[in-house]
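FORM 7B: Structural annotation worksheet

SECTION A. Query
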Amino acid sequence: LSPFEGGDAKRARRIKQLRTLILSELPKVDLVNILIDLDSATGFLRYFVTPALRDTRLSANVLKANAIAALIAIGCNIGPYRMALATPGITHSEISAMADWFFTPESLKAACIDLVNHGFALPITIRFGTGETCSADGMRFYSPANLLRTDFSPALKDRGITMVTHTADNLLMFHQQPIPCKMREAAYDLDGLLQHDTELDPTRCFTDTHGYTEAVLGAASLLGFELAPRIKDIKDKTLYRFERAPNYAHVDPIITGTIKTPLIHTSWDEVVRVMASIKARRVSASLILTRLSSYARQNSVYLGLRELGRVDKTKLILRCLHDEDFRRLQTKEINKGERSHDLDRFIFFGKQGALRSRDFADQSHSFSCLAILHNAIVVWNLTHLPAAIDRLRAKGHVITDDDMALVGPLLWANVNPLGHYDINPDRLSASW
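SECTION B. Predicted structure
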């Protein structure tokens, strides 16, 4: 494919300048205050103040303070001990107890859903996206712990684990899932589309080459989703037709494969049964598709899905060849997912961004807390962006909705995740 035509450099410079202007108008804020503000708006911390905790002598606001400290300790990867050093009045044992006993997969997911739904309901959010499109991408974390779920990653040149994230077109991260680095991300793309439980309704998912296989493309189509990977080395991929006889005068030379329709016919009933089980969430898409692809002798369901996926892959490649706007949309949405990873790295700064826990459940909790902090920053920005834009327009700056959509709410230069250092000059010696 030929590269995009020039002409975007000037617009890119303008967007960069506009991002700087918007950041100058957004309030500077501590991460802890973001969480406090959003709890006032959504009450998302209620999921950690369980009936068992309410029976204690601690008041609700004290319990919520412990929950905030634990979210930052785990989500920023600094740990309960160092978090306790930075938070007078909250002990290491209180933070650890909150994280160990009341940060369950269910409570963490429910809190994240509240933040996503609140952000999605804000009037400004529709300017950045409808929530019907998303991107899925994997983010790798170094993990020295010798766990079954960690393995060698060529990207890290060491052991690690991958967090597969789903980012909506409005920049809200609605699903995250840890997987081994050696696992292909494709099947997990469907997990995020089926299991997020938010008010978003993503039906189209953009991803990179690692985010698709032919079988997953077929499964996505049957489940009602459009998986649109940006395929690497597209010129080397095989295109398929239903019959060997030439039927497409202008593209016959490049269509060299033939769909094996008997495989689809013989496996159809089983394919429908498996897809119904996935749709009803009796089994996860990643589990069944990974299991089917691992058999030494290929399963008939897998073969049927693969043939269906080859049809979708051929249609996708042909669309990419002739539709430049679609290729631009692919790049735009995938870049949103990659930029959201930049925010994740900003948040997950402790221990040099390495996951050092030997417990896979703890690693999963780290990713869930990270997702909560990520969405908290995005939603806080969505809340304060309208006022910042109005102030800039009042000063004479011309800001169109299209420009604002390109800037987006994925901003963090105004956020302080580190806390404060009390350096009192009166305590220092006045001599040289």
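SECTION C. Observations
The chain has a mean pLDDT of 89. The first strand starts at residue 29 and ends at 30.

SECTION D. Sign-off
Analyst initials: ____
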